[in-house]
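FAQ

Q: What does a record look like?
A: Structure on top, sequence underneath. For example:
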């Protein structure tokens, strides 16, 4: 199903709840640049075999709410630019996502300018080597839970975190209960671009 609705610029609503996706491994760019898409029903989607979810909702700038809590992403390796440019997205539920295989989440939530709260507390990033810009320009984000973030995979280059929170100017609360940085420099690199 890779890129199946890519650049369907006039599409406003989709009901794909009847689709059997249990054998799909490549979900890359499915709704990429569906800029007028306002509603999408993926209620029955089985994503347990999915390895590539990159660009899946990239620049779906008319979406306001997305509940993907039923997605099984335990085999997902790539989520780069997945929600990038979802500028009107106010509610995003990925709170159940456990990501033991995740390698690339580059720019994943960049420009999600309408999100106020985001729970990625079950994200496991120990194997992730590309994590930069993950929350870049989430300008209204106030509450963020990254409780299980591990930075072991990027210990050789702390600068990969340097733009992680750039322009998250309203961020007030970050939960990092079990967060494991590879070094102090990794955290410093991530937070030294967090403007007051």
């Amino acid at each position: 199903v890779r890129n199946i609705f890519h650049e369907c610029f006039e599409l406003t609503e989709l009901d794909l709840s009847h689709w059997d996706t249990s054998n799909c491994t490549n979900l890359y760019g499915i709704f990429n640049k569906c800029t007028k898409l306002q509603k999408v029903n993926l209620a029955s989607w089985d994503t347990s075999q999915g390895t590539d979810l990159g660009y899946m909702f990239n620049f779906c700038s008319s979406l306001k709410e997305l509940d993907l809590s039923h997605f099984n992403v335990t085999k997902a390796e790539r989520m780069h630019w997945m929600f990038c440019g979802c500028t009107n997205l106010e509610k995003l539920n990925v709170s159940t996502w456990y990501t033991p295989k995740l390698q690339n989440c580059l720019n994943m939530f960049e420009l999600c300018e309408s999100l106020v709260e985001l729970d990625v507390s079950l994200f496991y990033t120990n194997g992730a080597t590309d994590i930069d810009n993950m929350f870049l320009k989430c300008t209204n984000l106030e509450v963020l839970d990254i409780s299980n973030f591990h930075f072991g995979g990027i210990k050789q280059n702390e600068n990969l975190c340097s733009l992680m929170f750039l322009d998250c100017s309203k961020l007030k609360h970050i939960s990092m209960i079990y967060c494991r940085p590879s070094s102090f420099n990794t955290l410093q690199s991530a937070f030294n671009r967090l403007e007051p």
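Q: Is there anything notable about this one?
A: The CA atoms of residues 8 and 82 lie 17 Å apart.
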